[in-house]
Specification:
Elements (H helix, E strand, L loop, with lengths): L2 H13 L15 H38 L5 H39 L9
């Protein structure tokens, strides 16, 4: 049992699970040892980040409330939603118009502006 190899695969699996089994044969570990070390490292890492994410989300919400202040009235909340909706609708309007213009220019280029694409012989 190679304790240094097991621990290196374990800690590598906590960071990047998909490539953690590659150095297993090079460290002289069997398939089962490599599998167990990678499985335990990935499982412990996933469990840690799953439960730690709750604390990160709570911290971000507190920071957001502290930065913006608490919106108490429903009118202010609806007004903010209306402003966001107007901005989003303008964004999508211009996005569609610009994409249609690019399709038109690209089509015109391939139809009329690229004579080398056609065999003239």
């Amino acid at each position: 049992m190679n304790l240094a190899g097991l621990s290196s695969i374990f800690f590598l699996a906590t960071v990047k699970f998909s490539v953690s089994t590659i150095p297993g044969p090079g460290l002289g570990l069997s398939f089962v040892e490599t599998f167990l070390a990678a499985f335990l490292g990935g499982s412990i890492s996933a469990t840690f980040f799953y439960f730690a994410s709750e604390f990160v989300i709570q911290w971000a919400q507190k920071k957001k409330i502290k930065k913006r202040g608490v919106i108490t009235s429903t009118r202010e909340r609806n007004q903010k939603k209306e402003n966001i909706y107007k901005v989003k609708s303008l964004y999508f309007y211009f996005k569609i118009k610009i994409s249609n213009l690019w399709y038109l220019l690209l089509g015109a280029f391939f139809l009329f502006g690229a004579p080398w694409l056609y065999n003239s012989r």
